[in-house]
From TrEMBL:
SUPFAM superfamilies: FAD/NAD(P)-binding domain, FAD/NAD-linked reductases, dimerisation (C-terminal) domain. This is Dihydrolipoyl dehydrogenase. Residues 6-326 form the FAD/NAD(P)-binding domain. FAD binds at residues 53, 141-143, 311, 317-320. It is an enzyme of class 1 (oxidoreductase).
Length: 463
């Protein structure tokens, strides 16, 4: 009889966990995955990436019809919102994709253990009262919403991202607390559908972690779209009477308090690693000061046979980062050499236009050495201009001595797609000259990347 029930047991079936489980099974390991949700796919497929993009896509069409962008191209329509149908297509997208993971589990012979997993020892977990043993256990339990102290999320007037995806009617006034990725994406959805949106951000600029020029430009574009910003401001308290919330605001640096009322408040001030109920103490595994599980470069924790990946470990909380770590951890467990290059992880905000970046910001790059920067505005890109998409730019940051590209940032309608090229170039160690001398199809938005690369050492053609 085998010493363990499974070679690999993954806890959590988000993009990190389900990918790790499938790859482990593909590599011939007997694999199970414990998931406590009703459906597979984790935060990303159920209440994150996928439903938010379904609403962003649909609301973008609505906005284009309502704000005159379609009329500009000779298509005159007066849109009527059927919010229930819009939610319906969101639910369909989630259902199809989560069902798809269930199909992949069956196809690859991954056993889904339904229920919450908790450690008994380093090779044993309990799932729904059943003890299961495995030679290797991968913690992929993801993250949950960071609460605002003293504020209760009722998912009606005061909502988190999950509640903001399900609102049954368009709020009159939505206040978004936190000008990060969730606030800007979901704030955009409801602004497009007719809500007045105010974003309260603690820092003096939105989108922390993004390049400084990008943050400023994004702020300008969102303001133009009608989102009101209260930067350098903190919310110190919220009361709700069940239909209206009243917030107390104070300047972050201290000063006089003001109040703000809204019929919907979205709390989006970050997410935190989820180790709730895992009983890590039973295996002697402690978390760091931010509640995360620490690992080495191979995703091993300090406990032999226990590994961790995705949002529960340090690094950007992104689905593709979790997925790549899922592949790498399975390969490492199988004795191969799974690697994730954490220096080249793209980040995309799926607003209009999209905002994307990979590698170092100009600020960080300058801290590390001398750099050269090339920029090219989308207004001078023929395709963007033809499509009436003049906002944004591409910025390339290269090492001043070697010309190696260390960061690429873009605001453009399709920046999320464009950034893949930049990530690949950086993964291959490209110089700005390599990009500048690569033939790009015309007319495409990607030509702006080529021209920004030309601007690093010389002159672009079209400005
Ligand atoms: P998760 O997806 O959080 O999955 C962990 C799973 O583990 C969950 O299903 C949970 O139920 C399960 N679990 C936890 N504890 C246990 C236990 N003890 N036993 C059994 N199961 C357990 N990222 C992007 O890259 N692009 C996007 O566009 C994007 N959009 C987002 C939009 C929103 C609104 C949100 C909230 C997040 C978004 N993200 C996006 C972030 C992305 O969802 C996460 O980075 C990603 O889901 C992390 O994957 P994971 O596998 O580490 O964890
Ligand atoms: P975030 O970290 O992106 O932004 C949170 C913002 O809230 C920050 O700007 C912070 O300064 C501000 N803040 C914190 N406390 C505050 C307070 N008391 N008052 C006012 N502002 C305050 O976090 P967010 O938007 O909640 O997203 C969580 C994670 O989900 C992100 O880290 C991101 O990686 C992931 N995500 C990714 C998406 C994508 O890739 N497109 C989409 C949505 C989420």
């Amino acid at each position: 009889m085998a010493e363990y029930d499974y070679d690999v047991l993954v806890i959590g079936a988000g993009p990190g966990g389900y990918v790790a489980a499938i790859r482990a099974a593909q590599l011939g390991l007997k694999t199970a995955c414990a998931e406590s949700r009703e459906t597979l796919g984790g935060t990303c497929l159920n209440v994150g990436c996928i439903p938010s993009k379904a609403l962003l896509h649909a609301s973008e069409y609505f906005d284009a019809a309502a704000n005159g962008a379609m009329a500009k191209m000779g298509i005159k329509v007066t849109p009527e919102l059927d919010l229930e149908a819009m939610h319906g297509q969101r639910r369909d997208a989630v259902k199809q994709l989560t069902g798809g993971i269930e199909f992949l589990f069956k196809k690859n012979k991954v056993t889904w253990l339904k229920g919450r997993a908790a450690f008994e020892d380093a090779h044993t977990v309990t799932v729904a009262d059943q003890k299961v043993t495995a030679k290797n256990i991968v913690i992929a339990t993801g993250s949950t919403v960071t609460p605002l102290p003293g504020v209760e999320i009722d998912q009606k007037v005061i909502v988190d991202s999950t509640g903001a995806l399900e609102l049954p009617k368009v709020p009159e006034h939505m206040v978004v607390i936190g000008g990060g990725v969730i606030g800007l994406e979901l704030g955009s959805v409801w602004r497009r559908l007719g809500a007045k949106v105010t974003c309260v951000e603690f820092l003096d600029q939105i989108l922390p972690g993004f390049d400084g020029d990008i943050r400023k430009e994004a702020n300008k574009i969102f303001k133009k779209q009608g989102i009101e910003f209260k930067l350098g401001t903190k919310v110190t308290g919220i009361t709700s009477d069940g239909s209206t919330a009243t917030m107390t605001l104070e300047p972050a640096a201290g000063g006089e308090a003001t109040t703000l009322t809204a019929d919907c408040v979205l709390v989006s001030i970050g997410r935190r690693a989820n180790t709730d109920g895992l009983a890590l103490d039973k295996i002697g595994l402690s978390t760091n000061g931010r509640g995360q599980v620490e690992t080495d470069h191979d995703f091993r924790t300090s406990v032999d046979g226990v590994w961790a990946i995705g949002d529960v470990i340090p690094g950007p909380m992104l689905a593709h980062k979790a997925e790549d770590e899922g592949i790498a951890v399975a390969e490492n467990i199988a004795g191969q050499h799974g690697i994730v290059n954490h220096d080249v992880i793209p980040s995309v905000v799926y607003t209009w236009p999209e905002i994307a970046g990979v590698g170092l910001t100009e600020e960080l790059a300058r801290e590390q050495g001398e750099v050269k920067v090339g920029k090219f505005p989308m207004m001078a890109n023929s395709r963007a201009k033809t499509n009436h998409e003049p906002d944004g730019f591409v910025k390339i940051i290269a090492d001043a001595k070697t010309d190696r590209v260390v960061g690429v940032w873009a605001i453009a309608s399709v920046a999320g797609t464009m950034i893949a090229q930049a990530a690949q170039a950086m993964e291959f160690g490209a110089t700005s000259e390599d990009i500048a001398y690569t033939c790009h199809a015309h007319p495409t938005h990607s030509e702006a990347i080529k021209e920004a690369a030309m601007a690093v050492t010389g002159k672009p053609i079209h400005i």
